[in-house]
Design goal:
Elements: H1 2-14, H2 21-48, H3 55-75, H4 79-84
Helix pairs in contact: 1-2
Length: 98
């Protein structure tokens, strides 16, 4: 899921701004689905399928992949960080500070 979302973000960024937003969104959604499907199939074939009879190891691999993908997105300049920085301005009134 992270790979598909990241691919959609990069696709939206790479398409020209003169293109209609709806069309850019549609192209990005298609790219996201394709990238997510390819990554999902690769993970299934390479990592999960060999562990079909080892249920605990399957859980550990999937949780580990989830944590690793989030960590990779965080250190690679994830769009999530760019959106989160400065998105919320907290203003406090001096009379409410104790």
């Amino acid at each position: 899921m992270t790979a598909g979302a990241y691919a959609a973000w990069l696709t939206m960024d790479a398409l020209p701004a003169s293109m209609a937003v709806g069309l850019r969104l549609l192209v990005a959604a298609v790219v996201a689905v394709l990238v997510g499907a390819v990554v999902g199939v690769l993970v299934e074939v390479v990592l999960i399928r060999p562990l079909y009879r080892h249920h605990i190891q399957q859980v550990l691999v999937t949780v580990g992949l989830s944590l690793a993908s989030r960590g990779l997105a965080d250190i690679s300049g994830s769009p999530r960080k760019a959106v989160a920085q400065g998105a919320v301005t907290v203003r406090t009134r001096p009379d409410r500070i104790r």
